[in-house]
Amino acid sequence: MHYDADIEVALQVSRTINDGLAEAAAEYPDRFKPLANLPMADPQLAVAELRRAVNDLGFGGAAIGTNVNGRGTGDEDFLPFWAAVKDLDCLVFFHPVAPMGGKDRLARHMQANFVGLPIDSAAAVASLLFDGVYERFRPLKKCFAHGGGAFPYILSRWKHGYHARLAGRIDPVKSPINYIRFHLRRFADTQRAWFEIPCGGLGQRQRRSRQ
């Protein structure tokens, strides 16, 4: 990701990458459906590049990071981006990036990778849930790398926390469980692993399959 680059540089990098991906896909149209690289540090430029990639280049969606210079992707600034995603009916693939604020603590033994990335994936899901993106724009097509990181294992804690501390305070956002059937049923990773959480109730069953 190049979210910390000068925005004009970031836009040019994204456009160059996307043009190159479009050329590769044109050579093998039956094998490739690219996902766009976007300058997410500027949501309006990200929307424009997403529309160009999907409408003009034939991309299937975009690949973005789990945070943008420390901002959750459910932040209000990114609402125009999610509105465009819904309008285009395209896929967003999330890949974790190093969490902000924990670099010193996680610096040793590659913990920024082993610990930080799964946690940041969970934080991205939480941002979309509690900041109301799922409530406002459902359904959305999205995929989280690495099985959703830590998310599947702490969803029950979010459910409890919502009812104990948040219910009625962040209306119209509902309990995280309410969004399972619309958004969070399957989490696919780069190794073809997936998790299924039944809509009937958390914790009844989790299934993991590898090919």
Description:
It is a single chain. This protein has 211 residues and is an alpha/beta fold. The protein has a domain of 144 residues: Metal-dependent hydrolases (TIM Barrel, Alpha-Beta Barrel). The protein contains seven helices and nine strands. The strands form three sheets. It has a four-stranded parallel beta sheet with strand order 1-2-5-6. A three-stranded antiparallel beta sheet has the order 7-8-9, with no helix packed on it.
Task: Please identify, by name, the CATH architecture of the domain at 66-209.
Answer: Alpha-Beta Barrel
Number of E-type strands: 9
Distance between the termini: 29 Å
Helix content: 40-55%
- SSE order, as H and E? HEHEEEHEHHEHHEEE
- Tally of alpha and pi helices: 7
Radius of gyration: 17 Å
Q: Please identify which CATH superfamily of the domain at 66-209 we are dealing with.
A: Metal-dependent hydrolases
List low-pLDDT spans: 187-211
Major sheet characteristics: 4 strands, parallel
Give the C-level CATH assignment of the domain at 66-209: Alpha Beta
- SS-based class: alpha/beta
Strand order, sheet with most strands: 1-2-5-6
The overall average pLDDT, rounded, is 85
Inertia-based shape: globular
The fraction of residues in strands falls at: 5-15%
What fold name stands as the CATH topology of the domain at 66-209?
A: TIM Barrel
